[in-house]
């Protein structure tokens, strides 16, 4: 082991006070053998907040306070040193020290990188213009809200959101809702693919979503190839040009085309880095004294963009950090995730492949009046994918069955009716099975 100290006596430094870093602190505190000295350094000036709720904040559905996870006093009460508004710039692995952009130097025995990710930027001219935003943190949300409250409130105006995935949709809807009371602010949503949320939805569900958003006044454009952003006479963004020659007026542009792991610190420190900082199943990097988790890490070629797998990483890493190196700790294993969209009044739930493969059996149901749509993909009686639009109540049950690899042949005819009907048939089949205890007793 690299340190002669017991795990509890070690100086643990966590870089990043975002969702992963904060959750790790909470989990460590609940552990009987928590490290005695914990320091958290975050580049943002606000203590950790629920980033997921930036979307309802932008939409005006929540107040800022609702996002706070714990304030700085809480960290002090827990005996944790919290340093905010400082960015770690270098790591000296030999000396086990790090330096921040404020010139602060800190020693560590174990270091955790929880630096998240950066918004991806398409390689088009004009992206650096004032008025072009991303949607990642509180400052971004504040800037967008300010736009709707000032410029858009005074002169109406046009906002263009680039990217028709989860984040782009939530940004566009948030802006549209904010702009509703303003002077006819128009929001356009550009999606390069032929459908919205192309990584989660089949064409039918995507079209249902598109027509719902259009009916709310959002200008949705699929198959939209971005050419460049044009500068106005005031030096700010003025228009977005599409490859087919269409110009779209734009006073505000939001780029939401995806994320790139923020692995820079690991790269500078000479750790093994691919797209993210490469970690093993105990979230340990190529340096045994340094761990990484959350959106900055890469495990078996996989990087992350949702909190569910990150919560599982936190459990594993907290356990690893609190136990002696000689003690076995169960490792992190990747598992499929389901997707939900946080747009009020739109309910969708999806997991697995978007398109049916040659071996898939497709079951689908559509009720145009209710606006409900369900499509299930089965292989040999087992569920591999589902897309639910409208009534999504059965989504978690389908996901559970898919994760468990349950044979659903016995409830096939009730599968589209919902969880209760399908489960009842499964239960009946289990009771009738020659190997079931009930049958044997009878
Ligand atoms: C608007 C929005 C909506 C979302 N909605 C959902 C959702 O509905 N469901 C879902 O599962 N996920 C959602 N996500 C994704 C989710 O928020 C992320 O998966 C999660 O925040 C990742 O946690 P993280 O700690 O890895 O990164 P982050 O939460 O981004 O935290 C990283 C922190 O590290 C700091 N940092 C970076 N570099 C340094 C440095 N060198 N020194 C010090 N500090 C540094 C950053 O400033 C940041 O505060 C959403 C994200 C956004 C932006």
What does this protein look like?
The chain has 12 helices and 25 strands. α6 links the parallel β10 (158-162) and β11 (186-191). α1 (19-29) crosses α9. The chain is globular. The termini are far apart. The chain has a 5-stranded parallel β-sheet with strand order 3-2-1-7-19. It is an alpha/beta fold. Bound molecules: flavin-adenine dinucleotide. Residues 15-21, 41-44, 51-52, 54-55, 87-88, 114-116, 135-136, 167, 262, 265, 294-296, 305-308, 310, 342 line the site of flavin-adenine dinucleotide. The site of flavin-adenine dinucleotide has 34 residues, from α1, β2, α2 and α9.
Give the gist of this structure.
This protein is α/β, with parallel strands linked by helices and 442 residues long. 26% of the residues lie in helices and 25% in strands.
Sheet with the most strands: spatial strand order: 3-2-1-7-19
Portion in strands: 25-35%
Give the helix proportion (percent range).
Answer: 25-40%
Assembly form of the protein: single chain
What is the overall silhouette?
globular
Mean pLDDT: 92
Computed over alpha carbons, the radius of gyration is 25 Å
| Poorly predicted sequence stretches spanning 5 or more consecutive residues | 1-6, 437-442
Number of strands: 25
